[in-house]
Amino acid sequence: MSNEKWWKSAAVYQIYPSSFCDSNSDGIGDLPGILSKLDYLKELGIDVVWLSPIYKSPQADMGYDIADYRDIDPRYGTLKDYDALVEGLHSRGMKLMMDLVVNHSSDEHEWFQESKSSKTNPKRDWYIWRPPRYDADGTRHPPNNWKAQFQGSAWDYDETTDEYYLHLFLAKQPDLNWENPDVRQAVWELMRFWVHRGCDGFRMDVINIISKVDGLPDAPISAPDEEFQDARALFANGPRVHIYLQEMNREVLSKHDLITVGETPYSIDPTALAKYVLPANKELDMIFQFELVGLDSAPNASFTPRPWTLPEFMQVVNRWQTLERDAGYWNAVYIENHDQGRSVSRWADDSDAWRALSAKMLAVLEVSLSGTQYVFQGQEIGIRNFPRSWGIEEYKDVASQNWYKEVLERRRAEQGRDDVDMSDILDGLQKKARDHGRIPMQWNASPHGGFTTGTPWMRVNDDFPTWNAEAQIADPDSVLSFWKSALRLRKDNKVLIYGDFTLLDPTNKQVFAYRRVYGEKRAVILLNFTSETVKFTVASVAAEASTRGHVFGNYPLVDGVVGAEIELRAYEGRVYLS
Ligand code: GLC
Ligand code: CA
């Protein structure tokens, strides 16, 4: 059918370069390490590799702070290594997607160095500078009350010119001024640079916050006790974001056959977010929406877990699966990335008893949803969150560290002593920290899981001796072997890629059931999200399922026609196809 595209049927594998494979024993993953694993990815059924940032960076935020957009960070290798990786991918029929981080640069980028040098520097206006505000007694304050992600004020004072610059993330990540056409030109040029060097697409970091509200007004006071306030509504999906992305499409994207996905946090409004994707708008192929992965977080507190229910989960999936289908909305299907805890630990059951089965059930979920598939490194072997017994020192992410320090200092001040109880914060981090997505890949049973022969930059999860890729390659029953066949099933059945989605039993607290229809082809998917055997008794669905073949699942297949009632075993996932 006419809406079929190579990037819609693609399976994309996200690599977090620092933690994938270390080739030179310095404890940090690198490009030659990635090159050495391409056959593994090909074998898994991967079409596109997306690399989290590999550009030159002081690594204040693990490479999401770029000091040179046209060079590779020495910890990862050289431009030659990049070329070899492109060649290695292309010769295997795979493609390469890069992370485009252009809402902000590093403060060490020469653009920012120039910008801060004087008010008259030609690059002054490439960033967002404002004079201080002074209160009645002459105390200096930032230009507005916006709070940054991962730290206090979104403004940092610079003495050289007696002004503040805006940074929506760390002070080492100054926001570029997209209002300036020269900035946009520079971005288009660096995109062309990588496309000409063999890159096949981009994942665009926080791309929905590049246009800030006019006048940069104070945010409404939502936390009266705090100095800085949540301003996300003032920069998410801002006034000119679509104009800029349409310009990007005209100038760069439309001239090549690329795959593009925009990361769009701080908004879960489907109507607002669909605009980035609808083909008539000529912007991006798809976005990463955060409604599903945010479901288990307390409101505005990403490191505080919140209990969730299956009907809520199904509602969110349903909303995005059925969004503006006729107008061509297309989903990016993901449940893990480098900013998230592991899916088996959040949405299933990572205890030894159920880990493998429930990780496979989540694989059935992913491959049977409409959208481009994203598999995060380690998801294919069922890596789980590292344990609660690990202390705060094992958390390397600046966001985890800053959050811990912030609460620690507040409690010490409130309680007037040093030894305050932080166990609830550690409980939350064990569930929700970004660190769990950044743990080194578990390749084999050798020290540090075969990730490095040196000292790893981050501790490897303790279960690597038994839980690793090598052991799973050898085991036809492993999570890895299951993912291979699940991705194959999807490739072989377009109904799973393109079919329309209907939620079948919206209030069921145990079973997620849905139908997919594509032309003459139909699929029914049943997923038991509990560790109990449950009877699925929606008669019409059972009858429908029973007339179709049970072709795929994480238990041995059940032969023949089943009755009006289907029994699903613990964490069983089934696909019926006709
Ligand atoms: C995105 C990235 C995250 C990073 C942030 C700032 O959300 O995925 O890792 O910290 O942007 O660049
Ligand atoms: Ca290395």
UniProtKB/TrEMBL annotation:
Keyword Hydrolase on entry: yes
SMART domains for this protein: Aamy (SM00642)
Glycosyl hydrolase family 13 catalytic domain span: 14-421
UniProt xrefs under Pfam families: Alpha-amylase (PF00128)
Keywords recorded for this protein, A-Z: Hydrolase, Maltose metabolism
Presence of the UniProt keyword Hydrolase in the record: yes
Top-level taxon of origin: Eukaryota
GO molecular function: hydrolase activity
Family note: Belongs to the glycosyl hydrolase 13 family.
Protein name: Glycoside hydrolase family 13 protein
